[in-house]
Design goal:
Blueprint: E1 4-8, H1 12-16, H2 32-43, E2 47-52, H3 57-68, E3 73-78, H4 100-105, E4 115-119, H5 126-138, E5 145-152, E6 163-170, E7 176-188, E8 191-195, E9 201-203, E10 209-217, H6 220-236, H7 246-255, E11 260-266, H8 279-291
Parallel strand pairs: 1-2, 1-4, 2-3, 5-11
Antiparallel strand pairs: 4-10, 5-10, 6-7, 6-10, 7-8, 8-9
Helix pairs in contact: 2-5
Length: 301
């Protein structure tokens, strides 16, 4: 059984207006998401599921799906604010859906095999997809065993400014204990630092694992997520900005002893366009990978 890649793309329209963020960064106009799909196919994923907004389905099918439909099975699901469990209520003035784990829930009807979750606009690297695919193949038929790709914080920095990262706290078996959000992470004088709650700079080793929202789950995760989402709405449904994030559900499962989440080290370097000034560097990095033969000049022919 081949794993499925679940791509979180529902935020595209709201963040960038239409599909403008499908910015051509590769030598033939390839997007960051194109490289993720290429890497996933190479790693042995058997299906791609995109979660998007219904409002830009036609454009998304024309611009994105048509490139891949002859190479791998592709399905689309939709995330809308109205997708809540029966009996749940929320503030009628709310304008946006409920965040990343709400988006994951939208795949529960079409994903029946172990699956990975990634952001549409992050470059994750071939090694990470290979590591993730191997793990997902190892948990076919199992439950309650999840994973997260742990990027070394030194491989996730921006040259244009500080970043925020979810720093992973792990036990002696590299199982996730919790994720702590750290802000203003940057390199200063050869040392990586973050800003603590008191506004003081704290050094952090370059090898420290951080979450870049690259997860691996078995289908039982959908049932847990639905249960937690009902609880979340009961407590937060009246709030206009509340978000049901993946780490929230995973942390609950870990604390309650219902599941484990292995933190898998990767040598891959993450990059993305955190700042507008990052774009030229991303183009250079992709073209260098092409020059080295990691990727062909034209991904999909």
């Amino acid at each position: 059984m081949k794993p499925t890649l679940f791509v979180l793309a529902a935020g595209m329209g709201s963040r960038y207006g239409g599909l403008k963020q499908l910015d051509g960064l590769g030598p033939n106009g390839e997007t960051i998401m194109d490289y993720s799909i290429y890497d996933a196919i190479k790693a042995g994923f058997g299906k791609i599921v995109f979660v998007i907004r219904k409002s830009f389905e036609a454009d998304f099918r024309a611009v994105v799906v048509n490139k891949f439909k002859n190479l791998i099975d592709v399905e689309i699901v939709f995330q809308e604010i109205t997708d809540v469990p029966e009996g749940s209520t929320y503030n009628p003035e709310r304008e946006k859906p409920w965040g990343t784990n709400h988006a994951v829930l939208m795949g529960r009807e079409v994903i029946k095999e172990p699956f990975a979750v990634i952001n549409a606009d992050d470059f994750y690297g071939q090694e990470s997809f290979a590591i993730l695919a191997d793990f997902l193949r190892s948990v076919v038929g199992k439950t309650n065993e999840y994973c997260m790709i742990g990027y070394r914080v030194g491989n996730t920095l921006s040259e244009s400014g500080s970043v925020s990262r979810g720093v992973c706290v792990v036990d002696e078996n590299n199982l996730l204990k919790n994720v702590v959000e750290r802000t203003h992470i940057e390199e200063k004088g050869g040392t990586i630092i973050y800003m603590d709650e008191k506004g003081e700079e704290v050094a952090i080793p370059a090898e420290t694992p951080v979450s870049m929202n690259m997860w691996g789950f078995t289908p039982d995760y959908f049932d847990y997520s639905l249960e937690y989402f009902k609880q979340f709405l009961a407590e937060n449904g009246d709030k206009l900005k509340s978000e049901f994030y993946i780490p929230l559900a995973v942390n609950n499962l870990i604390v309650e002893g219902r599941a484990t989440c292995a933190v898998l080290d990767t040598p891959s370097k993450w990059f993305g366009v955190t700042y507008a000034e990052d774009r030229p560097q991303v183009v250079l990095k992709i073209n260098e990978l092409v020059r080295k033969g990691v990727y062909p000049k034209q991904l999909f022919k």
